[in-house]
Design goal:
This protein is of the alpha/beta class and 283 residues long. The protein has an 8-stranded parallel β-barrel with strand order 1-2-3-4-7-8-9-12, surrounded by 4 helices. Strands 5-6 form a two-stranded antiparallel sheet. The longest helix has 20 residues. Helix content is 40%, strand content 17%. The chain has a single domain, classed as TIM Barrel (Alpha-Beta Barrel).
Length: 283
């Protein structure tokens, strides 16, 4: 079992990093001054082994957030209660401050796709998503956060702007919002909208976490790869997000071409500097 557990919600308004297996030993040995760690829930669904060996030690030293990528809440498949059961056990074991999933679908007929795909933003999809989130929160006995995902096209069937859809989900279900600022920038470029319009539509009290990451471009659109440093334009709108939502726990995500730990720590340091600068702004 884990020692030194943290209370639910005790994630500081600082920068954290996404913990990957390549960095287990480095984090344990160097104990960097980072605010918190986030892990992908599904990587710890097994009962034991190396992942839990390291996570138990790190959980005793850092606040922890669980971030899911496989629940596929937007799918028309029935909610996967076996998956939820494993998640509930993981929550009981590690007592994370935050638990999150994505506003997306990624499976059809029990077959999983290798991506987190956006929904058509319709009244029907809104009702379905809200029902799935409510069932999930009821089963887990706690609030979850829902993250906005990246898009490379828009559905002709959509009748609701993405930002209004996200806000409506939070208002109807009581879930929190994990605001992925990089995804908002990617979508703003790909789908031609103003990120600040997005921010203004989101209820301030719902935003409990922010994600920052890097992207690639194929010449026609931006692709959310999580494989590069945060770009200057995303840092700019991150500052604007903090002005609206206040200082929020901020995660540096890096999932492909994973660099040395020092690179992630430098990105986290930049976020911490901006958080401090925002804290010093007059109210």
């Amino acid at each position: 079992m884990v020692s030194g557990c943290f209370l639910v919600g005790e994630i500081p308004a600082r920068a954290g990093i996404g913990l990957r297996a390549q960095h287990y030993l480095d984090v344990l040995e160097t104990r960097p001054s980072i605010g918190w760690l986030e892990v992908h829930s599904e990587n710890y669904f097994g009962a034991g082994g190396q992942p839990h060996y390291f996570l138990e030690q790190l959980r005793a030293r850092y606040p922890l957030s669980l971030h899911g990528v496989g629940l596929s809440l937007g799918s028309t498949d029935a909610l996967d209660y076996a998956h939820l059961g494993k998640l509930k056990a993981l929550i009981a074991r590690y007592q994370p401050g935050l638990v999150s999933e994505h506003l997306c679908w990624g499976s059809v007929g029990g077959h999983y796709l290798n991506d987190l795909l956006p929904l058509p933003y319709t009244e029907e999809a809104l009702r379905h998503m809200c029902e799935q989130i409510c069932r999930t929160q009821d089963f887990l006995g706690r609030q979850i956060l829902i993250e906005n995902v990246s898009s490379y096209l828009q559905f002709a069937q959509s009748t609701i702007p993405e930002w209004e859809f996200v806000a409506a989900v939070a208002q109807a279900t009581g879930c929190g919002i994990l605001l992925d600022v990089n995804n908002i920038y990617v979508n703003a470029v790909n789908c031609s909208f103003d990120p600040l319009v997005y921010f203004q539509a989101i209820p301030v009290e719902a935003v409990q976490e922010i994600h920052l990451a890097g992207f690639d471009s194929n010449g026609d659109c931006l692709i959310d790869t999580h494989g590069k440093p945060v770009c200057d334009a995303v840092w700019v709108i991150y500052r604007e997000a903090l002005k609206r939502f206040g200082n929020v726990p901020t995660l540096i995500e890096w999932d492909t071409d994973i660099p040395e730990l020092t690179v992630l720590l430098e990105e986290a340091r930049k976020a911490d500097v901006i958080l401090e600068e925002n804290r010093a702004l007059p109210a």
